[in-house]
Design a protein that fits this description.
Elements: E1 2-3, H1 7-18, E2 27-31, H2 38-43, E3 48-52, H3 58-68, E4 73-74, E5 82-83, H4 87-97, E6 103-111, E7 117-119, H5 130-136, E8 146-149, H6 150-156, H7 167-178, E9 181-192, H8 202-214, H9 224-254, H10 258-272, H11 281-295
Parallel strand pairs: 1-2, 2-3, 6-9
Antiparallel strand pairs: 4-8, 5-9, 6-7, 6-8
Length: about 300
């Protein structure tokens, strides 16, 4: 579990591990240079190993935790998320039924900041063409839903530390190219959505996904199916994080941060490019209405409401 200033959620995540129906577990929290109550929270759980590093971001923290672990199977759980009680056993059962799999994948629910249910995304349970489908859309959502064999992560060399966002997806793409996987229908994790979570930082994620998808091109040569899937995936990510960026821009304008909004707008145009013209109409109408109101606003050009 990597943790950077997420102590307010950490205890919830730790307890979701310690209350698993499968009990032969090792729990490691990697404090990525937090300046909140993270160390004190971990001290409440003597069975949890605590590691500390200077702030180097999530991929490095995960790699440190993995290299310090001893288990034959690995789950990477973010500090602000939690497992369901039968998560570990469900994954192990799936491995038992699919001994060739390098990793197995379950379902997740999304929850709000307070832990209340938000919604339950459900993708078809795949039995083939894993890499192709992952290029098309990240049906796995994130690594909270995955259990890896130890030798899978060793073969891949861990998370790419240069990735500033999207490191889950980048690792999963490499894993799907190198190993078969198996999917099951059990809900294994609860993914917390709130304003400061990484997935809400639109321009950063647009930049990261642009780089990650570009890095797949050498592996698509000679395969029209994979190339078509990658084009579909590129369009999906640009639409998805362009919408996230638009929400952020509107929020910055409402909060009287025009410079931040302008910077995000430049990033939006640069990375979303022509996909801006294909965004759902409601988002374009919201932008248009916002700028119309700005013309009627106060002397700063901001919407007075």
């Amino acid at each position: 579990m990597p943790c950077y200033n997420q102590g307010r959620f950490l205890g919830d995540g730790i307890e979701s591990i310690l209350t698993q129906t499968y009990s032969n577990l090792e729990v490691i929290v990697v404090d990525d240079g937090s300046n909140d109550e993270t160390p004190e929270i971990v001290k409440r759980y003597p069975e949890v190993r605590y590691l500390h590093q200077e702030h180097q971001r999530v991929p490095t923290a995960r790699n440190l935790g993995f290299s310090s672990s001893r288990g034959a199977f690995i789950i990477f759980l973010d500090a602000d998320d939690r497992l369901t009680p039968n998560a570990v056993q469900s994954h192990l059962d799936c491995f038992a039924a699919n001994p060739a799999a390098g990793f197995v994948v379950g379902d997740i629910d999304q929850v709000n900041e307070d832990g209340s249910h938000r919604f339950s995304p459900r993708y078809p349970v795949l039995t083939e063409n894993f890499y192709e489908e992952l290029l098309r859309v990240n049906h796995i959502a994130n690594t909270n839903a995955v259990m890896f064999r130890r030798n899978t992560i060793e073969h891949l060399g861990g998370f790419e530390v240069a990735t500033n966002g999207g490191e889950d997806y980048e690792l999963l793409l490499r894993a799907a190219r190198a190993f078969p996987s198996a999917h099951h229908r059990n809900t294994v994790a609860q993914y917390r959505r709130y304003n400061n979570s990484m997935s809400r930082r639109g321009v950063r994620m647009l930049r990261a996904m642009d780089r990650i998808m570009g890095a797949q091109k050498p592996f698509l040569v000679g395969s029209p199916r994979l190339q078509a899937a990658a084009r579909e995936g590129e369009a999906y990510w640009r639409d998805h994080f362009a919408e996230t960026t638009i929400r952020g821009i509107l929020g910055q304008l409402r909060s009287a941060h025009p410079l931040k909004a302008a910077k995000a707008s430049v990033g939006l145009v640069w990375y979303a490019r022509a996909r801006l013209f294909f965004l759902p109409g409601r988002f374009l109408r919201r932008i248009n209405n916002r700028f119309r109101r700005r013309q009627r606003g106060n002397g700063m050009g901001l919407d007075p409401r």
